[in-house]
Amino acid sequence: MDHDTTRPVTGTYPDEPRLAVFTAAEAYETIELFQLLEQLDPAGRGRAAGQLAADLARRLPTP
Fold it and tell me: Can you give the residue ranges of every domain in the chain?
């Protein structure tokens, strides 16, 4: 599908507050699970999970 990138995106957005994709507790649990996945992968591909954990952790306030 082709998109016209020369015209700005327009639209209306609801006034209601949006819910977070993750709660903070869910995000911290996700980080822990990514770190565990990194440790459990004997083939060395777990580094990607560790990188995701680090990226997510940098975006969150400290608990």
Answer: 24-59
